[in-house]
UniProtKB/TrEMBL annotation:
Protein name, UniProt field: Sulfatase-modifying factor enzyme-like domain-containing protein
Domain of life: Bacteria
Residue ranges of the region described as Disordered: 475-504
GO molecular function: formylglycine-generating oxidase activity
A Pfam entry, by short name: FGE-sulfatase
Phylogenetic classification of the source organism: Bacteria, Pseudomonadati, Bacteroidota, Chitinophagia, Chitinophagales
UniProt xrefs under Gene3D superfamilies: paralog of FGE (formylglycine-generating enzyme) (3.90.1580.10)
Organism: Flavihumibacter petaseus NBRC 106054
Amino acid sequence: MVASCKNGKLFGKKTQKSDVTGWNYNDKNQGGYQVSKEKEQRTGPGLVFVQGGTFTMGATEEDVMGDWNNAPRRVTVNSFYIDKSEVANVHYREYLYWINTVFDGDEHQAVRNGALPDTLCWRSELAYNEPLVEYYFRHPSYNYYPVVGVTWKQANDFCLWRSDRVNELELVKRGFINDKSIKNVSGIAEEHFETKSYLTGEFQATPGKAARSKSNTLKNPNGTPRTNVTFEDGILLPNYRLPTEAEWEYAALGYVHQNPQPSKKEGNRGEELVANKQVYSWSSNVNGLRDTRRGSWQGTFLANFKRGSGDNMGVAGGLNDRAVYTAPVQSFYPNGFGLYNMSGNVNEWTADVYRPLSLNDFDDVSPYRGNKYNTVDQTTGKPERDSLGRIKYRLMTDDESRSRRNYQKADVINYLDGDSLLQGVSYGYGKTTLISDKSRVIKGGSWNDRAYWLSPGTRRFLEEDQSSSTVGFRCAMDRTGSPEGNGRKTGINYKQRRQNTRKK
């Protein structure tokens, strides 16, 4: 058979061609430059797509507290993914099982202990909560109740672990990693799969059968099968992470159903309605608030919270929310995005460092306070892994940032908040204020909170190395590509007019 390349066709098949050079992509005879055939970002396990947009962040008109730390502010949130429900005990125990299996040596005792949730968070000087201390995290009857007693740091580590396990399994499924690698993990410690280590070549995975097969769609420049996957191939997902405060609040409000689209056909969009600020996460729901045919929803509780002093679940024979403490993570009515317990059950960690006036300082798009700009540590001339198998990072230096126009410091947690030695202002944590650089925003209200704290606009904080029986978390993920979702274009596309090429 004679190979031919004519009019963008290679071996009789249409090939992609560069718009700037005219060279074929994925063609060993024309340089071998590879362009991924993956077109869209798949949705990771447990996640729901949240289409971004503009909204009013902060207090509602019904805010009886008139708190000055959540003044209303109009912002825009980019599209992203977020967990359908809070991370449950069974999920966190899965994480601990992996930690205990992989890091089983005596030298890693601190690693295993450092991942444990604080079950003593249930104790109170004037309450009998010992059954919860003993049983809540481990008994199977609480498997799908939200994990609590987890610090912000532990929640962040869980997100990193989850990212690696999801990406590792995807590579195994596609045959790029030998399936035995996820079976034999006992005692391998820092030699486990970690996404960044894999991408930088510091972790060498044993290729699976599909990677060496001729049917492998990934090719080297010479046309032979490529066994290592790059991020440009579109197979690996971005990291799971904690949602920003703005993302969390936007997802909780669930405004998507207030802008119905006539159809899914390209060009038909919603009417860009801007809803009035609602009080609770379930208020904007495609099915409304009650079953109008039978009235069966009228008067029922739509969240798990404390109705008043001494009333955490109502009266025997008529329990109002059927939960004295937490409830299963998929209890109660989901909001417009299909998310459970964005109001009530447990407060949830967000990524942001807390400042009372953050809403006045934020950028208009993707607001967030807590940035520390890191870069891969290549002191030895190449990336290196730490004792846990993760690529080492370091803060960017002032010299590296000096010539930039968008930032001059790597640690910008305190940017424009007055906390600067040059201005003679410092926080003095524990002396003049409870706020520090370790204070992280928590949102959503809990089983032991009054209804006021269930409003998505309210905000509180807890130190990142502390935990509580009323605080849990859920994970989020960046969205790549079109903000409208898979299969949708970015920008508005108009029909091209035919040019008049006739000569006068």
